[in-house]
């Protein structure tokens, strides 16, 4: 049944996101085309600085669109969770022969997937836009890639992989905390939105305090058992290893907190469901 939920979620969300990606792609292509006319003498076209003005406006619109897609995806997915499971639609959703955990998993998987797609789209779109406007020759790009490839070591690859996984778990953590807040919020105040905000920011503050206390305890323990001078020296000698270790700690932290938030969310949706 989880597979059917995932299929339904992807189908419904694709209707909202696909036009946004297509529109932004069209804007990027049009921006590159307009940039071509800025290299032509204005006397030849007899249109003054119009191409430059249009190009500047298109670039601003492109970067606004990129940020809107990334942050809009997160906001829309959180709103979709609230609307589908905590509003009137919840009566239908929870009448299905599906557990609350499956509903949460489907929402979380699809939301995380779209967030990753949005970030990946942006990371691809920006270089393409810059290269299209600057019109870097293909051979120069090839030379740059050949120059950089020998510098990529296994340590750097591992650091990049750790950053990617830590980022994904960071996305999961954000959604998990929001889902927990939405499920607990109606039990805090009569206003579901206000209650959710109270739970969200209150939980975030509590988690920050707990994390700080844990780091302090770990630091005091490490001071007694670890030779910090040699550790810092080794990390300074290998920055990639330092990044990998930091990201691994971040990943474990996000994983643990996400599991806690999802457990609380599942409990309230299963045992304490309070639909508007």
Structure characterization notes:
The chain is an all-alpha fold. The protein is 86% helix and 0% strand. The protein has ten helices and no strands. The chain has helices at residues 2-37, 42-45, 50-86, 89-93, 100-134, 138-148, 154-184, 192-225, 228-237, 239-271. Helix 1 runs parallel beside helix 5 and helix 7 packs across helix 8 (192-225). 22% of the residues are buried. The model has no long low-confidence stretch (mean pLDDT 80).
Q: Which word captures the global form?
A: globular
State Rg.
24 Å
How much helix, percentage-wise, in residues? over 70%
Content of β-strand: under 5%
How many strands, what sense, and barrel or not for the largest sheet? none
Catalogue the unreliable spans. none
Quick recap of the structure?
This protein is mainly alpha-helical. The chain is 86% helix and 0% strand.
List key phrases describing it:
276 residues, mainly alpha, globular, 0% strand
Task: List strands and helices in order, with pairings.
Layout: H1 2-37, H2 42-45, H3 50-86, H4 89-93, H5 100-134, H6 138-148, H7 154-184, H8 192-225, H9 228-237, H10 239-271
Helix pairs in contact: 1-3, 1-5, 3-5, 3-7, 5-7, 7-8, 7-10
